[in-house]
Amino acid sequence: MNLLYISTLLLLVISLLASPQKTGKALLLALKKFLSILPTFLSILILISISLYLLPEHVISEYLSNNNLFSGTLIATLIGSIVLMPGFVVYPLSGILLKQGVPYTTIAAFTTTLMMVGLMTLPLEKKYLGMKIALLRNLVGLFVALIVSLSIGIFFGEI
Question: Over 90: is that where the pLDDT of 55 sits?
Answer without folding.
Answer: no
